[in-house]
Write a structure and sequence with these properties.
single chain, 258 residues, mainly beta, 10-stranded mixed sheet, 11% helix
Length: 258
């Protein structure tokens, strides 16, 4: 599962792509979303996507030294979202797609010995710049955990979390915002304006000031009922810090979800 900042959907062939940015480096990506119909009301903000990819050809190197010795001009790791913006010479013919050029490290290898000859028989778990994804391909050569891999891939995946965000009908509270900031990294109980309660762990807090076009702060984390998701401060009516036994119970339940 990889974290992104969601910007919106783009129509693509018989489905939709999520236009997202990687966290930190803010690299723009398009990812074809298999379950986009369940998230048609998703607003801008943090999201999590289980990303996969398909390709026909890759290059594998046993080490970073071997990768650089091949004469490459790209760093390790590196990511070029060729489906997000056009190269100058092809600008007139450009259409958005979910294609990337990447270099990354192999975190794991799975083989399907029963796959048909025209089907993928290998899945590489890859860590590239800004996120991780599972790359499916037909590959007969050797590939091992820790190897360096480069190539092109078409990305697809599924969004996780609660789905469409609730409608904003309340004024953001400075006191709630302060608590979200102070309690980042803690277990909490959140009650929304419908009196629905959830318990979970705040993984991160993002403050958006008055100069930001949304003006809302939010937390991202994992919750017992909501799973991996996020809350804007104006969605929260009450928030309570959990400690001791209550916090340990929540952490135990979250380990099963994660």
């Amino acid at each position: 599962m990889s974290k992104f900042n969601f910007e919106g959907f783009i129509d693509y062939e018989d489905g939709q792509m999520a236009h997202v940015y990687t966290v930190g480096d803010r690299i723009p990506l398009n990812i074809h979303i298999d379950n986009a119909d369940l998230f048609c009301g998703l607003k801008e903000g943090p999201c999590e996507i289980e990303v996969c990819g398909v390709t026909e050809e890759i290059k594998v190197f046993p080490s970073e030294e071997a990768y650089y010795e091949s004469g490459t001009h790209f760093a390790m790791p590196s990511l070029i979202p060729i489906g997000t913006f056009p190269m100058t010479v092809y600008e007139d013919m450009f259409e958005p797609s979910a294609d990337i050029l990447f270099t990354g490290k192999i975190l794991g290898v799975r083989r399907d010995l029963c796959g048909e000859k025209d089907e993928p028989n290998c899945c590489l778990r890859i860590e590239t710049l800004g996120f991780e994804f599972s790359l499916w391909l037909r590959y007969e050569d050797e590939a091992n955990e820790g190897d360096i891999v480069s190539g092109m891939a078409w990305l697809y995946g599924e969004l996780t979390g609660k789905g469409p965000r609730r409608k904003r009908t309340h004024t953001a509270s400075d006191s709630i915002d302060d608590k979200l900031c102070d309690w980042s990294g803690s277990c909490v109980r959140i009650t929304d304006w419908n009196n629905d309660a959830d318990e979970g762990h705040i993984d991160s807090y993002t403050h958006r000031g008055d100069s930001d076009r949304t003006g809302f702060s939010f937390i991202a984390g994992c919750f017992i009922h909501g799973g991996p998701t996020f809350y804007y401060e104006d969605e929260i009516r009450e928030i309570e810090l959990l400690g001791g036994t209550e916090a340990e119970i929540v952490r135990g339940k979250l380990r099963e979800i994660r």
